[in-house]
Amino acid sequence: MPTQITHLAIAKRYLAQHPHQIKDTQRFLDGNVMPDLVPEKAAAHCGVRTEFKDLVKRNREKVNPELYRATHDMNDDFHKGWYLHLLTDDQFYNVFLREYCAGVSIDQSSIDIFETTQRDKAYLIAKYGVSYNDVTDAQALIDINVAYEKDHHQRYGYDYQFTMPYTLAELDAFIERIAQATI
Predict the structure, then answer these.
(1) 119-155, pLDDT tens digit by residue?
(2) What is the DSSP string of 112-165?
(3) Could you count the other beta carbons within 10 Å of the beta carbon of residue 53?
(4) Which of 4, 142, 149, 182 has a CA positioned 20 to 30 A from the CA of residue 118?
């Protein structure tokens, strides 16, 4: 899944490209990371938690941005941020990484995407000027990332092979494409 830093980079690009669409920037940024902070991820992403071995099918079912849009007040900047988060997750797995996901196991994709997103963080912070402090509950983001990294290494260890399924240039193009979305 895209990291919160990736989500914030997209949100900041959205704000830059749509300066009159968002009235309350802080609510928008807080909404943009909230789906990853709530305990029930499937409900927060308007998806279905599945145990499919088919990674493409699993990804298709785990997030539903249009259901969120249809059931929430899209005049509220918090909900606009939340929707952008869901749209990003949906497009990340079901468009941007679809071909990659079709040819790899769930465990290998977890390893590859973990390592790739670790690389992405420092790059995105430098290029887009984002940080955890951009949101009201920065400590919650830090805590969830520490827990995610700990869980990853408990599950897979430290000694494994991985490939990076996309380049930084491809990530930049993805960010620009999503930031142009209509919310």
Answers:
(1) 999 999 999 999 999 999 999 989 989 998 999 999 8
(2) HHHHHHHHHHHHHHHHH---GGGSTTHHHHHHHHHHHHHHHHHHH-S------S
(3) 9
(4) 182
